[in-house]
Amino acid sequence: MALANQRGFYYDMNRCIGCHSCTIACKAENNTDLDLNYRWVMEVEGGTYPDPTRHFFSTACHHCDEPACLKACPFATMDDPGASTTGNPNENAIVKRGINGDMDMDDGIVYIDEEFCTGCKRCVWACPYGAPQFNESTKKVEKCHLCKHRVDAGLKPACVNTCVGKALDSDTISDIESNHSGTVKEVTGLPSENLTSPNVRITDI
Amino acid sequence: MTKEEIIEEEDEESSFTMSRRTFIKLAGAAGAGAAAFGYLKFSPKKLMTAGAEPDPNEGDAGVSMVRSFCLMCHSDCGIQAKIKDGVILKLDGNPYHPANMDYTSDNDLVAEDEVDFDPTTDVGTLCPKGQAGIMTMYDPYRVRYPLKRTGPRGSGMWEKMSWKDALDEIKDGGDLFGEGSVAGLSAIRDVTNPIDPGDIYDDGERDPAKTSLEYWGPKSNQLLVFYGRNMQSDFTTRFTKKAFGSKNHHGHTSICEATQKVAHEHTFRNSDYDYSRSGLDQGFKIKGKDHFKPDIKGCDNLVVAGAAYLEANFPMQALARYSMEAIENGTEVWSVNPRFTKLAGKGSNWIPVKVGGDSALGIGLLKYIIENTQYDDAFLRACNSTLSPNGGAWTDACFVVREDTGKYVLDTDVGLPTPTDTPVVWNGSAFERHSDSVSAPTLDYTGLYDFGGGNVNVNSVFNLLKTHVSDANYTFAYLNGQAGLTGLTGKTIQKVGEFLTETGKRTAIDYYKGPSQQTSGYSACRAYTLVNVLLGNIDKKGGMNAGGGHYSYSAPAVNGGVSESGMYIDRHGKHYNGVTPTPARQWFPYASHGVCQDIWPSVKMGYPYKVKAVIQYYQDYMYTYPYNQIVRDTMTDLSATPLIVSIDAFMGESSAMGDYILPDTCYLERWTIYHSHPTVKTVVTAIRQPVLQDKITNVTIAGHSTKVYVSPLSTLTGTSFTTVDDFLDAFEGPMLLEDMLSALAIKMGMPGFGDDGITSGKNMYTAWDYYDEFAKSGDLGEGLVPSTMDYMTIAGQFENPANVYDAGDPTLLNHRYEGVCTLYVEQMAGDVNILNGSDTYPSFPRVEGLKDIAGNDLTDEDEYEFALISHKAVQHTQSRTAQNPWLMMLQPENWAEINTEDADELGVTTGDWVRLVSPTNTEGVRIKVKVSEHIRPKTIDVPWGFGHWEFGSKPYFVDGTSSGSDKRVGGGFYVNSLMRADPFYYDNSKPAASTSDRIGGSANQYVNFVKVLRG
């Protein structure tokens, strides 16, 4: 049930230098709690001396077509867009824009509506990517919302803007796929794409 | 409560999780009550109680953007601050600065709206340090008032002072601490009388041809201004040298990169080099280009030795962006490093050279290139600019050298008509001046010439180099293997040679701190530099050059200043010429960038003369010195350092040890006019300005109308002040360095400050006066409020970043060096180390192991079998980033990384504790181990920037009130105390420096050995 203008991230593993600028840009933009990151970079070391390897993987919410977080949420449902075309009329704690709220949008950004989140953490357990994170101060869950406040103003997400190695981008999935050939949705170490149909397109190493 | 109880309680209520806006709210509220409470106590609690809200967007109502440039490291990238309601919300990259973004402009000089991007929506990139700089600004533990110690040095006990009282005490001296009389700066500033004989260590070390005043200098030299990352050095030079009259204005370069600069200067020297050799200290006068970098995107094959492009070096962002693009487009990058760097992980080959092996590897590459005739024959034969195939650059390879003296043969020596002391080349049948239109200079020349006393062997420089690298000691068998210095096989060295000489490829070798910061650094750096010269890549696409440079500007001149004279504390730039046969410490004739690691031990020793006052600025040598114990020893010795004044925004480890702290503003709150670095191939003048522009306040001081920056942490009561003292009394809180030193200088009646302080007739009261005049010079031209130009809006003057290559010949870089490339450092011929007659200074780089300061081999470290190295993690810079919660969140502590093979032998695994013990630090340092495949065996890497013991990691007390603290600032481990004290001094009971490169002056930060003990 992919939306025509579904948005997501593009990530080129070859060009990522593991500098964590994306993580810090997200913190600065979204003013997140110190120990809670919407985007983070993993470092994967392998091989044997003198032929070792080191790769990086920058990851965040993948704004999935079949979001496990939303499906696990007791206060949200995928199949009730409600009568209104704007806002979150059905008080869904997790919204996928154009599917169960914000029906005038068709970019499929998945965000948590703090007003209705009870902090039950079911989404934290359900997401195979570890995107939703529990905030001990607010007792609610938070995660990447693809800087929807920026996307709605025609701007790129903060993490994309600052990517030093030019590894990260965000766009509609159809534009990403036409700009970058040979991308994949799953690389070694990531869960099967079949679980959630993630909206990330990766240039693998 | 006791001090210890307060510290313990505060550890429980850390401020790290506080958002910056919460902090600002708190700061505002507390600021209002500050007067009532005296010293403001900052001990904020965890205050995040509501869900986070994202920032407003650029372009939203009330949001402004101010551009400047960064100082979270020395990459000096552009920044763009997003500001609302007087608060800095976010820092992005300035899209106009070429370090942050690649773009094209319509014209050669970039104008605000004539670019191929949309400045209202597009921003440049910014690294994590740069973005986190916002927390430097809003750090809760910033020093907020002038402080004076009330306990012993380092006790952490302070009292708050007014600006006027603090500056008066520093100026006037007296019994300031109840410990006896201390000379103030006014008494020290005697620019006409010689230093008291009792303050001179050994007057027998004076050149007998000079008076004490001429040689050691005036009493004013007894002020030492010792700085770290000082980007206001034009100003501090004005204050220290031209106004105060002290020669001792010293920086930190030798714990960073001094030797690589010296090696570059000796190779790419100025064309006005004096071949007549009239001055003994000619070596010091070679001030050529001090840094070349490759044109990364133009390279086919690039070797990077001891430089960490994706983590540090500068500008890190440009290096990273260029490298990633180049690699994507097919450039092969090989990394030479005992550590598997992030760049090594992206490149196609890792050469895990043994620690300390760079001089041998460099010589091995020179040997490979020469013996396989893989050098650029046409380039080497270019004995003048006209003959250059590289658009101007040429070499001394064909210059002829006489064997008996080691000097170039001059036209004067061989009887050419109308001689001008110009070196000659051999044209196949006769000598000709190199600068004449020589048709076919002989590259590999050897012959005989009778200069009047019988035949002497004469050889071309290239011929000498060929002979030099064929030395029996320099066989690949010697260079390689277990017994050799490189720890690589001869085959590996040859593979690197083949890679660099692959037919039809544009190739280069770049290096930075690794090779430089060793006792053999000079030879290592010269060897790698000469590889590029032999490859003939200077100024070529894909080759090496000095970058685009900057547009013209100049610092305002001093009206009626004094001339510095005498001897530097670190004796750099001077040959020893005294009556006493050997000096008590080493002298450094070739270390043109100073020897800062020798300064604190020299001060401790009172050598060559006693220092009476130290002003520290933007430095933390207590933390950054290798073998840092000497800094504590000196700073706690009141007779060696009677007065220590620190200008610092933070309670750094060094500031904590001083007498007074004068609180500085941070880099987001000042002006600087500067350039970029050789990595960037187009012209850059960058402008730093206070990003909170509404804090720039109109004032009148002593009838002079000017502006002062009043930090959000500061208050200024009133706008018109009859005297400088009235202004100081009205000012509370951090003050710009330039404002405080100008006030001090005016109070002391120093030239160059106050009315008519600037040559142009302008008054010099404040930073504004200084930089407004600065920005009226050269190509800027219109001051800090330009009416027709937009350089303050885009924070600089930038050349179109697309202008990298020569429009007429795209195989050449557009901005070229075009000067001489010197293979042979002539002035070193016949020159020997004053402490060791058998240690000659090397005209050609040589293979060299670990040495002490006198050039003696250090071979007694066999039981210390692990080489201790470090690297800058991408989120850290020297001493000044650990107070930043976002950066410490990325990695709360560091570790000792060792190879799996060594770990197995030791029986340790990741997370286990070990103790590292060194010849100097036998008690050692306990540290956790990280076991990996990413480091050469028998090597230990400890990432740098961790393990602070001040800097907000523990509280200081002002009038009995705690500053608050967060122990996470001090996360991780600090290992500089393991670095070896030079046994030449240590064993002779003299105050020791770390081991050092006795030629280029760098501290040895990479060839230190430790034992690893379990537990």
Give a structural overview.
The complex is a heterodimer of chains A (205) and B (1015). By secondary structure, chain A is of the alpha+beta class. Chain A has six helices and nine strands; from the N terminus they run βαββαββαββααβαβ. Chain A has helices at 21-30, 68-72, 122-126, 148-151, 158-161, 173-179, and strands spanning 7-12, 40-48, 51-59, 94-96, 110-112, 133-135, 140-142, 168-172, 200-203. In chain A, the strands form four sheets. Chain A has a three-stranded mixed sheet with strand order 8-1-9. Chain A has a two-stranded antiparallel sheet with strand order 2-3. In chain A, strands 4-5 form a two-stranded antiparallel ribbon. The longest helix of chain A is centred in the first third of the chain and has 10 residues, at 21-30. Chain A is globular, with a radius of gyration of 17 Å. Chain B is of the alpha/beta class and 1015 residues long. In chain B, 22% of the residues lie in helices and 16% in strands. In chain B, the strands form twelve sheets. Chain B has a nine-stranded mixed sheet with strand order 9-8-22-23-24-4-5-39-40. In chain B, strands 35-37-36-41-34-38 form a six-stranded mixed sheet. In chain B, strands 13-12-11-20 form a four-stranded parallel sheet, with helices on both faces. In chain B, helix 5 (163-172) crosses helix 24 (737-748), helix 13 crosses helix 17 (490-500) and helix 13 (358-371) runs parallel beside helix 19. The radius of gyration of chain B is 28 Å and the shape is globular. Residues 13-51 of chain B have low confidence and may be disordered. Classes of the chains: A alpha+beta (205), B alpha/beta (1015). Chains A and B meet through helix 1, strand 2 and strand 3 of A and strand 3, helix 3, helix 11, helix 12 and helix 26 of B.
